[in-house]
Amino acid sequence: MGDQWGSSPTGTVLFVFGGLGPFAASAVLVWVSGRSVKSWFRGIFEGRIALRYYVLALTIPILLLLGAAVIHVIFFDGVVTPDLLPGVIEYPLFLGFVILFGGGLEEPGWRGYLLPALQETYWPLTAGLIVGIIWAGWHLPPVFIPGTI
Fold first, then answer.
1. Structure pTM?
2. Which residues cross the membrane (predicted)?
3. Does residue 77 belong to any structural domain of this protein?
4. Per residue in 44-54, pLDDT tens?
5. Rounded CA gap, 18 and 4, in Å?
6. To 10 degrees, what angle do helices 124-139 and 9-32 make?
């Protein structure tokens, strides 16, 4: 394993497997249990939360960024120029990229399958901690592979 192993074809395959693994494993487990994979997947994306909470989730990072910029200028005599701030168009594009390619593909596995399955037996906090430990273990190998992020 050289320094470039993480960007090699093998590294790319492992990256894709890492991103799709939890989702694929969950789909297989749903199918093996005799449940409808289509219904399970549809259930993950049902809107159970009011639209205002989605709006808050999308605007709070922008407000935090603006707040940090104000603190930077007032308390540290910093300068904020427009080129330092992400564009209005860049933010949703970046968010979409992260959802589709930067870990969002894992979420049906972690929160769409594993978390509800654990919550059938454990308290929500305990189930969340178990998912967090498994998630951390799933993401630990790249720490030891040079050239990966």
1. 0.63
2. 12-32, 53-76, 88-105, 117-138
3. no
4. 877 778 889 88
5. 18
6. 150
